Amino acid sequence: MNVDAPRPGPQSAAAPSPFPPIADYAFLSDCHTGALVAPDGAIDWLCVPAFDSASVFGSLLDRQAGFFRVGPFGISHPSARSYRPGTNVLETTWKTPTGWIVVTDALTLGPREHEDTITPHTRPPTDDDGDHMLVRTVECFAGHVDVELVCEPAFDYGRTPAEWTLVDGGGHAADASGAGVTIRLRSDLALGIEGNRVRGRHTLRAGDRAYCALSWAEELAGPASVDEADAKMAATTRFWRGWLSRARIPDHRFRDPIQRSALTIKGLTYMPTGATVAALTTSLPETPGGERNWDYRYTWMRDSTFTLQALHYLNLDWEADEFMQFVADVEPTEDGSLQIMYGIDGRRDLTETTRDDLTGYAGARPVRIGNGAFDQRQNDVFGAVLDSILLHTRHSERLPRRLWPVVESQAECATRVWREPDQGIWEARGAPQHYVSSKLMGWVALDRASQLAQTTGNAEKSAAWRATAEEIRADILEHGVSERGVLRQHYETDSLDASVLLAGLFDFLPGGDERMRATVNAIAEELTEDGFVLRYRTDETDDGLSGKEGTFLICSFWLVSAFAIVGELQRARDLMERLLRVASPLGLYAEEFDAGTGRHLGNFPQAFSHLALLEAAARIIVPEMLAQY
């Protein structure tokens, strides 16, 4: 009997696959681009020179779309993997039958020496910047180990195999070119070209060190020796630890996940403009083997308020200001509203295409490049932007002159459209509806605009916007609450939607309001799987797609916050403890969690999940600290 014979029904997230589990990847970043490192030591995802560039290693989405492995020959499972404390530098320890090695990986950063021409900056330059290179070092600390290097780029998401050329007489440097991109590999291992890949192999003995570096920097510069490579690693370690030392991390049992979330969010920040990508990847599936696959390498305006909350909570005011200036820079649409998302360079056109030549992660197709939701109507965007401006103004104690026109335009847009249906916070591709969370964020927009107008002394606008906010509030309470006193998904249904938890997070309803308590309890009891929160029931929601999806991690963290808001602090702690225990082995979160298998689903790592973790942690930590006094 074949125990692995396929059975009819939905694909399991834990079905056998040549693709590593999503949560098993490690995340590297230089705040220009990022990489994912598989447990076997292969770089399976890297786009150069920026987060949203085409991939040069894309095995994450097709096992023939390029990879770059450094590790022991013939061994695929390491003994241990961890980040250097306080950094995004990865250390992987390997045991072989003959010895032990440690491989260290980083997208390196260091002191800024000249203007960046690879990814030009629109924000003022800082003292440190990305080197535009991936550095990998190997050290043998016991016995002897055969170390192998295999570098097989496939440019333009796997479409163009690399053409290699040796560039020195000693066989220690080679250039790979394709699709208009050239990268250079350097190593103290002797390199040989085998078709579309380069290989090197060498036996290291106790005390021996080796390195390799892949560069897309100016003139393809890179370290020329293992000592120079170690110096790059040391500078990168100093950068991350120096950055983290500026953050206000409470001395609490949640300290480690808070630090890892802070480092992840910083790692998803595009230093040249101050933008934050929603996730590193595109098209990791929300439904195993399904079509719910999206490109998240862009900046969502709705993330702005959660980003500002997290950065100010951590006392990272420089990063908060950088992001706020990016928001001020972006170009509005023809009617004055902001798009729901922008490119990390501020571009508006994110036209979606599919790459049907790629298999997709574990067969999940299509692979999407771009995001077709960029021009959707989502009325929640105004509230997110204006709430973030108010947060920023409170912390800086001034409203920058360049932000007041943004306040006026977004308040006017919210006033104009709040009565209209939209696609909602989840970017449903079905028919527009009167989503309660969109109405709620319309209220947030006018409420925050009214407060900002008071800051500028504009009493007339403040009063007008306050009146509109109250009108929206009355409309929601009349049409958006079911007969049992629970906030609906939209006006034409009694179905639940986790996004209405925002009513508590944005102070639309106080924690003592029975409607808030009833909503929190209904979602906890009826919109969960094994205690983890779904964003909605796919069989009750016209989102234009097929297939079931996993629980949304951000929604589960929102429920933690909501429990705390309504006074259920122990329930908040209980759920928080469960959520912290389903983090990846390296403390990272994807977008979703499949409660049935324990697997992560969706793009990875996901900024929104980590931002919600930080807020949930604060909702627990602050009352616990206050109780001590």
Reconstruct the topology from this structure.
Elements: E1 26-29, E2 34-37, E3 42-47, E4 55-57, E5 67-72, E6 80-83, E7 90-95, E8 99-111, E9 128-152, H1 155-158, E10 160-161, E11 163-166, E12 173-178, E13 181-187, E14 192-194, E15 197-205, E16 209-215, H2 226-245, H3 255-267, E17 269-270, E18 275-276, E19 299-300, H4 303-313, H5 317-329, E20 341-342, E21 353-354, E22 368-369, H6 381-396, H7 404-417, H8 436-456, H9 459-479, H10 502-505, H11 514-526, E23 528-529, E24 532-533, E25 551-552, H12 553-565, H13 569-580, E26 592-594, E27 599-601, H14 607-626
Antiparallel strand pairs: 1-2, 2-3, 3-4, 3-5, 5-9, 6-7, 7-8, 8-9, 9-15, 9-16, 11-12, 12-13, 13-16, 14-15, 17-18, 19-20, 21-22, 23-24, 25-26, 26-27
Helix pairs in contact: 3-14, 4-5, 4-6, 4-14, 5-6, 6-7, 6-8, 7-8, 8-9, 12-13, 12-14
Describe the structure using short key phrases.
629 residues, 15-stranded antiparallel beta sheet, globular
Write a structural description.
The chain is an alpha+beta fold and 629 residues long. It is 31% helix and 21% strand. The protein contains 14 helices and 27 strands. The chain has a 15-stranded antiparallel sheet that branches. Helix 4 packs across helix 14 (607-626) and helix 5 (317-329) packs across helix 6. The longest helix is centred in the last third of the chain and has 21 residues, at 436-456. It is globular. The N and C termini lie far apart (66 Å). The mean pLDDT is 94.
